[in-house]
Every structure is written in structure tokens, then in C-alpha cells.
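## Example record

The block below lists the input lines for one assembly entry, exactly as stored, with component labels intact.
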Amino acid sequence: MLVTVTGGSGSGKSAYAEQTAVRLADGGRLLYLATMMRDGAGAQERIRRHRALRSGKGFLTIEKTDSLCELDPGILQGATVLLEDLSNLAANVFFGSGGETVGKADREAACAACLQDLRYLQNQADNLVVVMNEVFADGIRYEEGTMQYLRLLGALNSAAARQADAAYEVVYGIPVPLRGGTLAAASVCEQGYDDTESV
Amino acid sequence: MREMYIITGGAFQGKWSYAQKQTGLPAAAFTDGETAGYEEIFHAEGIVNFHLYVRRCLTGQNEEELEAFAQRLYEENPSLVLVTDEVGSGIVPMDPEERAYREAVGRVCTFLARRAQRVDRVVCGIGMVLQRKPDPDGRSQ
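Predicted C-alpha cells for the full assembly:
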């Protein structure tokens, strides 16, 4: 079973992904695959926070910032893997090559490497829950390297969600199904937009 | 007795007029998060631009402090109609304050959404109900 979970900053996506992994594991082994580099902006605080969230839930934590297909199949087989997160993995692969220019060729290479890692995890593990990030809607035109990175994330998120049995966007802790499920409260209230002072 | 109702979505999507239509509250019942005093939110019927209130009044607080604020808000004003921009869906900014602001809006809204009776998201003026709990009388609102 593959489940993808996306969301913005502070959306509660990590907590939801953990719950999902615990539910899918159904008492089986739980692996937390941490891809974040420890020296990034705010990394220590995020690590502390995520550790506190996970504590007591039975996750074994493995830190691996890239080349996930090098992981021992023995540890993955029979386990439910929570990958946190796809954006960090992609950044490590894309920006980690060290070159000055990070252009189209680097992006395509990074995309292929990340997809290979995902495929490997998916094939080896019983269940895979992938956390990713909604980072596409701030309307800012970044410099070339960041735009290539955004394009890379868009492609990876789409590829992962396409193969997923269920894909969710978490909004303030509420899982909104993008595919493979229906929203418990699903309904639409049509309202004409008629207020120029509206927010 | 109305219960907490959160209306979110991107900027300029018609969230406020949607909020007025859904609740029957007039525009004057909403305080503005861009200018509201810290205490005002605890007794207002509604607030628009809640994200700007968070930006002005709460950015820099740690998670425990944010939770304490949200807890107090829910306890003292459980029927608040809260209209906020979604602000967390961009590249996580390098600037620590900008990062903390987005995180704070998300954390406070996640805390409140768990307790709110209803959460809607407005896109192109059209609202989608993300969460609707049965009210205490068993009627759906």
C-alpha cells in the first residue's frame, strides 16, 4: 500500500502521516526514514518536534539523506515505512551534487534517482507513506536553481500520487482526499463572488 | 448557539462575503486581524485576516505558547467565525521570522480546526466543506 500526504507549513501533515503509518502497520514493524540534513535552517528544532510527535508510537528511526536504494532490504521487508520527506530527499540529491549551476540536466538526474528510491522502498516494504510539501503557491519567481527544484518537486509529487492507493492533502489537520477516498464532510456551497472588498 | 467556524483559502477568493452569507453575520460583526487589538479577538463575533493577527501578535511564540493562545481563544470565544488566508503553501522562507509566521498560522489553525464545528475552504468564491460535525442538537448546520 502506498499513501502520499502533502500539505503546507504547519498543516499537520506529519501527524496525519504518522497516524496513517501506525494504522497501516496494524501492529507490524514501523520504520521512520528521516531524509533531512541535520545542519539545515531550523533543522534541530524540527527534529526535536518530530521526535516528540513520534515518541511512544514504536517507530525505529533511520537517517539517510539520499540513495535510499542502498538500504538493507532485510530491514524494509515486512515493515511499514514512513518517508519524511520527499522534498528533503530531492533537495539533497539535486543541490547535493555541489556544482555551481543546478539546471535541467541535474533536475532530470535527480528526478530519476528519487523515483528509483521510491520504487525500491515501495517494492521492498509492506507499506509506504510518503510525506511531501505544498510549496507551489506563493507566486514568487525564484532564481533558476530554485525554479528547477520546484519543477522537480512537482514532478515527483505527481509521480508518487499517481501510483498511490490514496493521496491526501492535509489542511489544518483535516485530510482532504486527492484520490482514493472521499471527504467525510464533502459538500460544496456555491456562492457568487460579489464583494470587491472581500478577502 | 453557534460553534466555531473556520473559513480558509488563498487571498482574494471571496472568503469574507462567503462567511457573511453562511453565517448571516454582517460585515460589521467582523474585526480585522490587520488592526485588531490583542484582546479584541477574545470577544469578537468574527475576525477576518486572522493570519495578519497571528503575524502581528503571535509570531515568535513557541509551540506551547501558540497552543496556550489557541486554547484560551477556544475557551473564551467558542463561537468565533474565523476567516484566514492559507499562507503555508510556498517555499519555506530562509528568513526565520517569515518561517515562524507561516508555521504559527498553521499550528494555531490546526489546533482550532480540531475543535471547530465546521471548516470550509474557499476557492474562486466557491466553498468546500472540509469538516462538519453534528451540532449538539443533532441537526446539521
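The first strand of chain B starts at residue 5 and ends at 8. The mean pLDDT of chain B is 93.
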